[in-house]
């Protein structure tokens, strides 16, 4: 007899996302436990169409508290939890029954892919999303909550697509302000906690409040200084600090912190990516080239050894490979190596075909090589993608004159 699976969720006004979320998992779950915290749109109607068991619960600005309500109502052997703005990857859904049927683990890490506009994957992180329905299990943490399990946790190899970052700016700002409020309450209760400091630093950075981000990141790093070689928290907090100094144009400070991070772990691709970008801004093409190649090498290593990614839990630069190839293409272009520029920008186009910049760069390299027909096709593709994204491209007049029509962009 196969083990059963409950899908547990908390929702509020999720009519735009909920249907695709439930559809992605419906074939492999045995029940849907949905805790609603006050929806006023069509969320509940959608949930009922999937035969969800719905429980109303007052929202208390505590994600763990609401999630624990859902656990109390789950009756299956295993619990899978998703947010409404997530989708279980199709291949992962097919593998789920087999994973729970043949395992001694008590829980499993999933890889979460964060999607932004136009299908761009900005990064990924690892978190436990599937676990046995044991007595005493519970979530902890008012926000960025995590499950407390009694037993071993494995890596499932399964993926979840997250679309919650692809929202309008005003909605995102409200969410971030809410997150700050909850995190400050958590910090007051905990006394001092490096995890909360890390999250506060990150959300203040996203809000453009750089001084507050520096304050929380610095304090968080002090709390984890002694275990920095074994604890990812020091490194990912340091990465927030790197981003603050990049955002404020303090490139030398940002570079120094990148070097510090890489002395601790040379496979920290977030630090490698930032360091390469700093070299690009400083017009140090030689070091940018070397650092980008290190980034690609270490990314391949992380892809082949998932435990490396799980160590970091969050890798913001994982989805930046197309940008890396674009920058490599730019370096080769300006060095007059048009064959390598074409090779790199073609990789960028293959990875991110909806990105106008990749088509632009490929067109420029093809034109420089003398392939005007190929360049024209690339510039047309760039114009098509830019019009769909409501972007304006800068057109190089010489290429425009050579092609008579089409579009290009400056590098």
Written account of the structure:
It is globular and about 65 Å long. The chain folds into 3 domains: 5-162, Spore Coat Polysaccharide Biosynthesis Protein SpsA, Chain A, CATH 3.90.550; 169-316, Serine Threonine Protein Phosphatase 5, Tetratricopeptide repeat (Alpha Horseshoe); 322-403, Tetratricopeptide repeat domain (Serine Threonine Protein Phosphatase 5, Tetratricopeptide repeat, Alpha Horseshoe). With 411 residues, it is α/β, with parallel strands linked by helices. Strands 1, 2, 3, 4, 5, 6, 7, 10 and 11 form a 9-stranded mixed sheet that branches. The protein contains 17 helices and 11 strands. β8 (138-140) and β9 form a beta hairpin. α5 (169-190) packs antiparallel against α6 (194-206). It is 55% helix and 15% strand.
CATH homologous superfamily assignment of the largest domain = Spore Coat Polysaccharide Biosynthesis Protein SpsA, Chain A
Average pLDDT taken over every residue: 90
Total count of strands? 11
Number of domains: 3
- Beta percentage is 15-25%
User: Which fold name is given in CATH as the topology of the largest domain?
Assistant: Spore Coat Polysaccharide Biosynthesis Protein SpsA, Chain A
Our count of helices gives: 17
**How would you describe the shape?**
globular
Query: Can you identify the CATH class of the largest domain?
Result: Alpha Beta
* CATH architecture grouping of the largest domain: Alpha-Beta Complex
- Taking the alpha carbons of the first and last residues, their distance comes to 60 Å
- Give start-end ranges of low-pLDDT stretches: 391-411
Cα Rg: 23 Å
Query: How does the major sheet shape up?
Result: 9 strands, mixed
């Amino acid at each position: 007899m196969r083990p059963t699976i409950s899908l547990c969720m908390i929702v509020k006004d999720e009519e735009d996302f909920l249907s695709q979320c439930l559809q992605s998992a419906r074939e492999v779950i045995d029940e849907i436990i949905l805790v609603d915290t006050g929806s006023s749109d069509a969320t509940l109607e959608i949930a009922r169409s999937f035969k969800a068991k719905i429980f109303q619960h007052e929202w208390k600005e505590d994600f763990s508290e609401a999630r624990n309500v859902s656990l109390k109502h789950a009756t299956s052997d295993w619990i899978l939890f998703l947010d409404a703005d997530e989708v279980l990857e199709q291949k992962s859904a097919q593998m789920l029954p087999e994973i729970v049927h043949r395992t001694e683990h008590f829980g499993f890490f999933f890889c979460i892919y964060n999607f932004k506009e136009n299908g761009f994957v900005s990064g990924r992180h690892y978190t436990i999303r599937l676990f046995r329905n044991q007595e005493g299990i519970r979530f902890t943490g008012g926000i960025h909550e995590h499950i407390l399990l009694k037993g071993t946790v494995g890596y499932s190899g399964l993926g979840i697509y997250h679309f919650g970052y692809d929202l309008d700016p005003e909605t995102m700002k409200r969410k971030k302000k809410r997150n700050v409020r909850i995190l400050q309450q958590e910090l007051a209760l905990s006394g001092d906690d490096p995890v909360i400091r890390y999250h506060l630093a990150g959300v203040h950075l996203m809000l453009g409040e750089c001084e507050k981000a520096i304050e929380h990141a610095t304090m968080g790093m002090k709390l984890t200084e002694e275990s920095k070689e074994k604890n990812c928290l020091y490194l990912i907090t340091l990465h927030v600090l790197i981003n603050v100094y990049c955002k404020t144009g303090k490139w030398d400070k940002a570079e120094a912190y990148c070097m510090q991070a890489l002395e601790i772990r040379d496979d920290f691709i977030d630090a490698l990516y930032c360091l390469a970008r700093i070299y690009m801004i400083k017009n140090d093409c030689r070091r940018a080239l070397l650092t980008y190649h290190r980034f690609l090498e270490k990314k391949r290593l992380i892809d082949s050894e998932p435990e490396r990614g799980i160590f970091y839990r969050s890798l913001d630069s994982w989805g930046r490979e197309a940008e890396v190839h674009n920058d490599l293409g730019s370096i080769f272009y300006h060095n007059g190596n048009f064959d390598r520029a074409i090779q790199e920008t073609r990789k960028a186009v293959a990875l991110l075909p909806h990105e106008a910049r990749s088509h632009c760069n490929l067109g420029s390299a093809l034109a420089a090589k003398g392939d005007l027909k190929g360049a024209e096709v690339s510039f047309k593709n760039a114009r098509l993608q830019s019009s769909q994204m409501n972007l304006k491209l800068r057109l190089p007049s010489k290429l425009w004159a050579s092609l008579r029509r089409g579009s290009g962009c400056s590098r």
